[in-house]
């Protein structure tokens, strides 16, 4: 996680495998086929919907084990709808004999973390006497027991909060980032987990960055790292991240990576509200969503299309879950619309509601965390609603079903369902499918002859049998492509809008902020997200 604060200011403060074989829901290992991650044995698609869980900070003990039992944490990951955890680790835990031998209790004592130690004694007493590496294995097994897949992410070399450009962990040759030691760490971890099917992927390094970053070294070391992992553990997926805090893989357009990794290579990218530094989420929300989505596609998203597509794992995105950062709120709707449309694999930043120790602060709360500081409750259940659709697999490469659409409203996290006469918002997991040939054609409720139609300005959208009028001819009308509009009898565009009075009603109203594009640069003070609806392709039954 690149910290927003650090970007905006320049201050520097900134067990056993056999036990669980029978319980996993997919038959692992995984491999890749075109842009999809698939079950290697059957070829069926497996979508990674992960949450990040850090274990790379000072004590190198996965966060929260002092708050709740491991089985409880694993069960809550599963009950929140995730099938996977991106578990982070620090190289030194495996390469420095001093750390390798340290027990969990000793590591906590080293940092004077008495409360965390007391909490572990209560919640996970069996872990205290294990070494840090054994404790990590126990966490992997505990996740596997709940059918949760694990992506092991090499997050830093020196264990500490990550990431800013001058923290010594950013690029090969930095103070703590010795390439040989990094390769040794990858090799050790690959070997340790090669027979553990729960570990489906290893991500080679988080967020390359800083003054030393350069493409030549990147190509050279990525090849060495992937070879090292693949040699020890040929079944595991190898995940590769780009430069500039995992936001840039654009250089691959000029020079593809020539790796001997048939069906095992996955790329990863990060996308936060502050990733693209021009910051126009407010006042130009539609225009900037278009610009930011194009930026993401140019930098990384292009990898899933073209002649040689590969899977792209959006391994970090997230927001302040208190909802207090309006820039974050607007970005999230834009990102979720794109993530749903492209049906990429992803990992939310983040699970932890608090840390044992981060940047000198004991027990620091994490506002990007799904859980609260006590790891007891979901901080904001609305966040889980927003993830409902992207937690589903909407595109199945093996499906024989035709492409239909789900009508998604990212701000509420709900989807439009056809009722007797009208439409309303409800759970995306049990929603209607729609057919739509192209921009500027009717939107028909599957299995009926009824189409989405305007009744009038400020009135609920209806379903009518007359699909040929302008009032049932829908297209996207703003730069963000997130406004769905048709013309009323006077020839004016009206847009679908989430009702502010009745949270399941969908009205048609005057379109908001259409002219906020960056060229003409007028500013719109309204929040157009109430009108953001997106047709998400699906060929699932
Ligand atoms: C680590 O533990 C091993 C086995 O108990 C021991 O041989 C070795 O000396 C220890 N190394 C350090 C640096 O404490
Ligand atoms: C690629 O890997 C295969 C199997 O591991 C090996 O036989 C082959 O020599 C490798 N090719 C290159 C160019 O490294
Ligand atoms: C459908 O709508 C158009 C335009 O409003 C109208 O001219 C036409 O008569 C309608 N057809 C039916 C069958 O209602
Ligand atoms: C809210 O909207 C839904 C869907 O249009 C409708 O069924 C329901 O009756 C409305 N509730 C109220 C209180 O108006």
UniProtKB/TrEMBL annotation:
Residues 1-27 form the signal peptide. Residues 69-352 form the Glycoside hydrolase family domain. Keywords: Glycosidase, Hydrolase, Signal. The keyword Signal applies. It holds the Pfam family Cellulase. GO terms for molecular function: hydrolase activity, hydrolyzing O-glycosyl compounds. InterPro entries: GH, Glyco_hydro_5, Ricin_B-like_lectins. GO terms for biological process: polysaccharide catabolic process. Belongs to the glycosyl hydrolase 5 (cellulase A) family. This is Endoglucanase.
């Amino acid at each position: 996680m690149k910290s927003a604060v650090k970007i905006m200011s320049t201050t520097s403060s900134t067990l056993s495998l056999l036990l669980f074989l029978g319980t996993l829901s997919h038959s692992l290992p995984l491999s890749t086929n075109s842009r999809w991650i698939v079950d290697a044995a059957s070829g069926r698609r497996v979508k990674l919907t992960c949450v990040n869980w850090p274990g790379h900070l000072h004590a190198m003990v996965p966060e929260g084990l002092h708050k709740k039992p491991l089985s409880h944490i694993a069960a809550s990951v599963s009950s929140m709808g995730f099938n996977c955890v991106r578990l982070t680790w620090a190289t030194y835990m495996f390469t420095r004999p001093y750390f390798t031998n340290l027990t969990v209790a000793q590591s906590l004592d080293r940092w004077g973390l008495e409360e965390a130690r007391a909490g572990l004694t209560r919640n996970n007493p069996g872990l205290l006497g294990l070494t840090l590496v054994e404790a990590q294995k126990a966490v992997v097994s505990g996740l596997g027991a709940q059918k949760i897949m694990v992506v092991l992410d090499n997050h830093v070399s020196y264990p500490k909060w990550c990431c800013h450009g001058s923290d010594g962990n950013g690029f090969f040759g930095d103070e703590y980032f010795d390439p040989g030691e990094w390769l040794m760490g990858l090799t050790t971890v690959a070997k340790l987990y090669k027979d553990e099917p729960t570990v489906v992927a290893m991500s080679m390094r988080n967020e390359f960055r800083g003054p030393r970053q350069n493409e030549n070294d990147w190509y050279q070391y990525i090849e060495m790292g992937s070879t090292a992992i693949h040699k020890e553990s040929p079944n595991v997926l190898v995940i590769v991240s780009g430069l500039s805090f995992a936001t840039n893989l654009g250089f691959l357009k000029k020079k593809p990576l020539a790796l001997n990794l048939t069906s095992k290579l996955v790329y990863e990218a990060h996308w936060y509200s502050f990733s693209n530094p021009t910051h126009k989420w407010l006042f130009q929300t539609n225009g900037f969503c278009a610009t930011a989505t194009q930026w993401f596609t140019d930098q990384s998203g292009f990898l899933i299309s073209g002649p040689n597509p590969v899977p792209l794992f959006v391994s970090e995105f997230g927001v302040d879950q208190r909802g207090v950062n309006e820039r974050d709120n607007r970005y999230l709707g834009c990102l979720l619309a794109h993530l749903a449309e492209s049906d990429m694999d992803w990992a939310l930043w983040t699970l932890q509601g608090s840390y044992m120790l981060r940047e000198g602060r004991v027990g620091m709360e994490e506002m990007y965390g799904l859980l609260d500081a006590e790891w007891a409750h979901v901080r904001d259940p609305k966040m889980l609603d927003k993830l409902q659709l992207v937690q589903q697999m909407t595109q199945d490469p093996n499906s024989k079903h035709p492409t239909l659409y789900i009508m998604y409203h990212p701000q509420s996290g709900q989807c439009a369902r056809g009722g007797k006469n009208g439409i309303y918002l409800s759970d995306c997991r049990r929603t209607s499918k729609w057919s739509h040939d192209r921009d500027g054609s009717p939107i028909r409720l599957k299995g009926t002859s009824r189409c989405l139609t305007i009744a009038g300005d400020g009135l609920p959208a209806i379903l009518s049998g007359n699909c040929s009028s302008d009032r049932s001819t829908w297209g996207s009308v703003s730069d963000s492509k997130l406004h769905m509009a048709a013309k009323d009898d006077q020839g004016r565009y009206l847009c679908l809008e989430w009702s502010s009075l009745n949270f399941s009603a969908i009205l048609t109203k005057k379109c908001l902020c259409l002219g906020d594009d960056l060229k003409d640069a007028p500013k719109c003070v309204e929040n157009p997200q109430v009108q953001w609806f997106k047709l998400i392709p699906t060929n699932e039954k």
